[in-house]
Amino acid sequence: MTIPPVLKGGFGHFDPKAREYVITRPDTPRPWYNYLMNDTFVSMISHTGGGLAYYKDPRLHRLLRYRYQNVPYDRPGRYLYLRDHDSGKYWAGTWAPVWTKGGTFRCRVGACYQVIAYEYQGIASEITYFVPADRPLEIWDLRVRNVSKRPRRLSTWSYAEFAFWGAMRDLMNIDNCPNVSRQRHDRGAIVHTSWNDIGTGLHDMHFVQNCGFHLSNVTPQGYNGDRDRFLGNYRDERDPVVVETGRSTNWCENGGYPIGSLEHRFTLKPGEEKRIIYQTGYAATDREYRGVARKYLSEEAVDAAFADLKTTWTKRFEACQVKTPDAAFNAAANSFIPYQAAMTLILSRSLSSYEWGVGRAIGFRDSSQDQLGMMHALPERSRQMILALIGAVNEDGSACHNSNPLTGQYGEAGFYDDQNWIASTVAAYVKETGDLDFPMTKMPWRTTKKPGTVLDRLIACEEFSWKHRGKNGLMQTGCADWNDSLNPGRKETESVFTSILYCASTRDLAELLERLGRAKDAAVMWKRYQTMKALVNKKTWDGDWYQRLIFTDGRVMGSRRSKKHDLPEMYLEPQPWSVIAGVADKKRAIVALDATERRLGTEHGHRLTDQPFEVFDMNIGSVGIFPPGIKENGSVFNHASAWMIHAEALLGRGDRAFEYWTRMCAVTKNRIAAKHECEPYVACQFISQPPFHTTGRGRNAWLTGTATWMALASYQGILGLRPGYDGLSVNPSIPSSWKGFSALRVFRGARYEITVRNPRCVSSGVAAMTVNGQPVRGCLIPWSNVHRGRIVKVEVTLG
Ligand code: GLC
Prior knowledge:
With 799 residues, the chain is of the alpha+beta class. 28% of the residues lie in helices and 25% in strands. The strands form nine sheets. Strands 1-2-9-10-11-12-21-18-15-14 form a ten-stranded antiparallel sheet. Strands 3, 4, 5, 6, 7, 8, 13, 19 and 20 form a nine-stranded antiparallel sheet that branches. Strand 27 and strand 28 form a beta hairpin. Helix 12 (496-515) packs antiparallel against helix 13. The structure holds alpha-D-glucopyranose. The site of alpha-D-glucopyranose has 13 residues, from helix 8.
């Protein structure tokens, strides 16, 4: 298979056909991660096996430990050591933690699976890690092959370190934790049954004795259940005494640090292969674990589960597939863009190598947006998440900024942008699914338990916003608006961004109300929308762009007048949103976006501001705690930068939209991977900019709002596949050099096979369209139930 040069990087390449990223060097600038999961069990795994696992809730049911802020970053992990008993040499099939030199390494990063292959000393191993759909456990499917010319006497040791369930206790209560440790060896399995307090506090302790287990489908010759005895004194995972000496401890004890480690001893003739399947998992009780593990003792069941996983993901990917003239676009839009968007849709901000899983869990504004990119492929999961968010709306229409519906914990409200994100998400869900009953779904209000509907929440949210206007009539920030670090402490500070966001939200709510036959309510919303839109244009247009904040003392940030107060003259967020919300007319929108490119454009995307704060001033916000050029202090903050792609696409300026897409997409980061440092297959949160000491360094990969907006900007923006109440529209905004493209989009059960031709080399504008050969007006494929379950051919000509 030939990989186009554009998809190659210094540490690996995209394999578009397999929808994988292939890491070919283990010494990546930082650990590069992936996820394995099903509905109840989630694992985070680095390219060398590092990372953790949990059942349902990363705070209360942490199965495998991970040491955050550690050196090195990704320990411990699920390792597989190998030892040659003749030479006494040992290494790890995961490369880490032994870090041997001179082997051949390959890690295939796929959708919820990871295949790590390593060849060293004439022994080739390959481990496929994944979580089957129907059991709360990880499978490590190991194959060891003798590729040398002589028989080899080998041992393998698996290694997984159990956590003491409660992640906070595991981190902080060192007096208690190792003393609750209980584990035993049970017929080839290591069983960890420490008690776990899942109560809510001192007066509500609730102890359960859950079970963690580690076992294999081949009878082991030795076992090790205690970390310290396995590693030995004054050693670490790199040189465990058991592996070095080749002697298992055959020891499990209470009151220590539990691990699961099994030894298999075997001889391989040249060319011979051995397969061992390990399971590391969770069971509610000790009595149940054998039952949980039984199914995947069989190789056939494991093969079938892996095939099943691939089919599930192929189906998700195929909900929207494209073929354009651009190899990078195809590779990203058909695999890692939707994959990352799916991960944020499911995980919100709960767990990554930057999010520890005990903090914010579901962020209201983040998760509301996270639904937008992939709800077409995961409508059920999206519906669940939207309902969880609806459950975090208070009766006054404010929204809990963070919540954890699993544990029933709801954080404070106070960020006045929050409640403005949910109406557009609900509207998008209804447009996608056609389910007009969804807004009428009933669920009791969280605090009073009185009955209410989804729609009641949306109206309450709108009312809350309307009540929280400041003295200029614009929306107040509360704690902060989208930009968390513009948190001046005076909640009456007015935010131009939130005012524009409010317009988008209120417009989407008004349209939804019309669809639901609530004309009178809709009319109120439209009136408010118009009022706010007019005010934003009158008060906050600065000549070439929209302003950003109005402080209570009258100072304005993001204006030409700002300089005299030592404040940045321009900020990014309001500019693309003036287009997304329909607040700017076309002329103004073009002026604003052009100015944004001139002042904030970089080779990676658009910076939040070109004048990072040199000093810390809490009257402005915590932004100054970040050194200039990183995080919200003037980096390319990818989430907001992606709004620019979408805005340009909505304006019909396809060349620009695509240019910005190219600057931002992971494929371009692949080529600067050493400098970028983060995973080159997914977006990270921000990219450093001058005056930071290096430009292009990424941080906080995976769980970022960038994921959903890259998906949205690709599918709905550039390709123009836009779901609406009356059907799917096809209104592309592509580079004028594209002669066309084709796409497959599943929509409400119909499979639209779309061919777009661009004979006149334009970048937008539909000249003609046919649906199953019949001409239609405009660019809407009128929805018909007849399409459900069918293939519908759509031909579009631009010009
Ligand atoms: C982080 C937060 C998000 C916020 C953004 C900008 O990505 O998760 O909520 O909007 O930073 O501050």
